[in-house]
Amino acid sequence: MSPNQLVTKEDINNLEIRLISMMENITTNSPIDLEQETYLRSKEIRKLLSISDNTLRAMREKGEIPYSFIGSIYYYPKIKILETLEINTIN
């Protein structure tokens, strides 16, 4: 298309259809599992597990739960916490 050609309504509609198709492919073929990318902070973990701050600290020190420490904030991978709960389930 040359700079002097007019863009028609049909051209815009075709572009929209192509863009939507491309976005759908990105979201359906994405190798990233969004749940795995979710991290919880200490307050959320304490609420989820119904534990105190001291208990959470002890669990970190014993290596019972995985975490990352960035700046002054602890981050806990949600999927790993849920896996830990399932592994430690007693029937």
From TrEMBL:
Residues 39-83 form the Helix-turn-helix domain. This is Helix-turn-helix domain-containing protein. PANTHER family: HELIX-TURN-HELIX DOMAIN-CONTAINING PROTEIN, PTHR34585. InterPro entries: DNA-bd_dom_put_sf, HTH_17. Pfam families: HTH_17 (PF12728). SUPFAM superfamilies: Putative DNA-binding domain. It comes from the Bacteria.
